[in-house]
Amino acid sequence: MTPAAPYAGWVPRSTLGPPRPNLPRSPRRTPLRAPAVLDAVLVGLALAACTQAPAAGPARTSTTGIAASVTSTATPSPSTSTFVPRTVTVVMTGDVLLHNTVVWQAQRDAAATAAKEPHGLTFGPIFADQKAAVSAADLAICQLETPFAPPGGPYTSYPVFQVPQDVLGTLKDIGYDACTSASNHSLDGGFAAIVRTADALDAYGLAHTGTFRTAAEAATPLVIDAGGVKVGLINFAYGTNGIPVPEGKPWAINLIDIPAMLKAAHAAKAAGADIVLAAVHAGDEYGRLPSEEQRQVAQALTASPDVDLVYGHHVHVVQPFDRVNGKWVAYGLGNTVADQAQAGKREFTRGEAMARFTFTETAPGRFEVSLAEVLPGAMGFQPPIRYVDLGRVLADPDVSASLKARYQAVRADVIKAVGMLGAFDKGLTIGK
């Protein structure tokens, strides 16, 4: 719903897009980058001319703003004689998709509170219901569907997005540690927006991968120290809505290419990752079942010893979880914040899935998923625009019976979607 006077930074566009068990916890996490001794490995991995992989550059110190070092720091795997299993819990969510209506809601929230973020926007209330689950994880990862505009705007919405950087303060505050950035909208603002997005993520202390400012950055694996467990993260997207990749900068965005993905995962393991997660931005928009491309990518990645889990976004609806080659795949998590289920349109996009996986060390340096959970969520029945933790709202005695019935139907739809390939028979549980 459009306010009477949208704020000055806005450039009007169309409003919307198209049709656990008590396991021991690890302390919180620190991002690191591959040490320089791995440069030779990365150079070899980057030579395949048919892939998006760029030539390797020198290892760089993380500029995320979180205390980090390229030289080391994660707790080494214990020797077999003193083996104490480590655990790490990772939370992943779907697309942060800031339609203009979401930004206008942040403007209204800012007007109602003294706790304003810069430029008259406050995103905190929109995301607040994620905080309990996100902040409790050892590592929490978001997906930025849209690139950032310059501070203060001008901002644009569908079909070509450039959105406020201010949202990053909220993402950081509620507990996210990293964001993937490769999507079909990554080039909406050209290469300049890729640079702006990475710079903003650095400024807010969020690790990131998927789009890159330099060839050297693209060639450097992202490995995050999650309390002594090193987690590698790779991110690839299916395309850029027909916008050409910048000339002379084939490394600016990771586009899906199975050999390149396997090389990236191997580079992360070679850089010291105990676990490697693959975030895949692909699928048929609004499709409930994974596309052939999604299935092929999942099959290839899970067959590799370098990949431990695959998850996805892009389609804006929840898709099934499954086990492929013995490893978990969450094909599509839906959105995490968006405004596509407005005024009865695309109601099927309201439900969302937060994925939470706990990895436990079964032998020195070897990790397996010991607990797989889905936490059903939704975009609230508005106004105002809010992410809703369905477990919380259904247990709230102050929520009316009629509204609970509507949310119960959304929850049932999410559970049905994630279980379409038999995930609950394969060990998936509903988290709290």
Short description:
It is built from 11 helices and 16 strands. It has helices spanning 39-45, 100-111, 124-127, 131-136, 167-174, 190-203, 215-219, 258-270, 292-302, 390-394, 401-418; strands at 29-33, 87-96, 139-144, 178-180, 207-209, 222-226, 229-237, 275-281, 309-313, 321-324, 327-330, 335-337, 351-363, 366-379, 387-389, 428-430.
Helix content: 10-25%
CATH class type: Alpha Beta
Rg over CA atoms, rounded to whole Å, is 20 Å
> SSE string, helix = H, strand = E?
EHEHHHEHEHEHEEHEHEEEEEEEHHE
Structural class: alpha/beta
Which superfamily, in CATH terms, is the homologous superfamily?
A: Metallo-dependent phosphatases
- By CATH, the topology is Purple Acid Phosphatase, chain A, domain 2
User: Could you give a short account of the major beta sheet?
Assistant: 9 strands, mixed
| Gross morphology | globular
Number of domains: 1
Ends distance: 32 Å
- Roughly what fraction of the amino acids lie in strands? 15-25%
Distinct helical segment count: 11
Return the average pLDDT rounded to an integer.
86
The second-level CATH architecture is: 4-Layer Sandwich
Number of DSSP E strands = 16
Give your account of this protein's structure:
- By secondary structure, the protein is an alpha/beta fold.
- The protein has a single domain, classed as Metallo-dependent phosphatases (Purple Acid Phosphatase, chain A, domain 2, 4-Layer Sandwich), CATH 3.60.21.
- It has 11 helices and 16 strands.
- The strands form 2 sheets. Strands 2, 3, 4, 5, 12, 13, 14, 15 and 16 form a 9-stranded mixed beta sheet that branches.
- The protein is globular, with a radius of gyration of 20 Å.
- The model is unreliable at 1-28 and 34-79 (pLDDT under 50).
